[in-house]
Every structure is written in structure tokens, then in C-alpha cells.
Write a structure and sequence with these properties.
29% of the residues lie in helices and 13% in strands. The protein is of the alpha/beta class. It starts with 16 loop residues before the first helix and ends in a 6-residue tail after the last helix. The mean pLDDT is 84.
């Protein structure tokens, strides 16, 4: 089952009881709320995999995600860190697309 929990500009939808329940039901949680540390352990449970794609700068000027990593990491089975998580996947896909575009422009078959 897939649940999409809305997270507008202030991620207010996540703060609801329904939002907390839906997140706890999920086996895989992908967080892109746009707000540093908005998801903590109270939204999560054991057995989950959490993918944090948020990029924020906290009060100390450090890069952080939308998940409070220190709070969530002891609870869930797996979690991506920020920095050092999905950014490398994004970079790899971008490089692949650039190479494919260059090969197409050169008239070479990319398959």
C-alpha cells in the first residue's frame, strides 16, 4: 500500500494524527517535506526504511535533511543520511543522462 502524506510549505499536514498514522503504516518512507527535521521518531517505527531527500541548512549552518536523523536512526531499520545519502544517486543519474545526450548528439546508438 502506498500513502502520500501532503507536506505543503510548512509541512502542517504531517503534524496531524492522520499523518502520523499513515507514516507509521508505511514500510518505506520517502521524505521531501522541505522543512529541516520535521520527521522524528514519533512518526516512525521499527522495520521501516527511510529515504530522506530533503536538503536544508540548520541553525548552525550545517546541511541536514527533513528527518531528524539522530532521533530516527535508532528506531528504523535503515535511513539515508544527509549529506551523503541520495545525492550521490542523483549525481550518477545526471552523469548518465549527460553521457546519453552526448552519444545521441554524436549520432551513436546508446542501446
Amino acid at each position: 500500500m502506498v500513502h502520500f502524506v501532503g507536506a505543503g510549505p510548512g509541512a502542517e499536514d504531517l503534524i496531524t494524527v492522520r499523518g502520523q498514522r499513515l507514516l507509521k503504516e508505511a514500510d518505506i518512507v520517502i521524505v521531501a517535506a522541505g522543512r529541516a527535521g520535521v520527521i522524528d521518531a514519533k512518526y516512525l517505527r521499527a522495520g521501516q526504511t527511510v529515504i530522506d531527500v530533503g536538503i536544508n541548512v540548520n541553525e548552525e549552518g550545517k546541511l541536514c535533511g527533513d528527518v531528524n536523523f539522530a532521533d530516527a536512526e535508532p528506531v528504523v531499520d535503515a535511513i539515508t543520511p544527509v549529506p551523503g545519502g541520495v545525492g550521490s544517486v542523483t549525481t550518477s543519474v545526471l552523469v548518465e543522462h549527460v553521457v546519453d545526450a552526448a552519444l545521441l548528439k554524436a549520432g551513436l546508438d546508446i542501446l
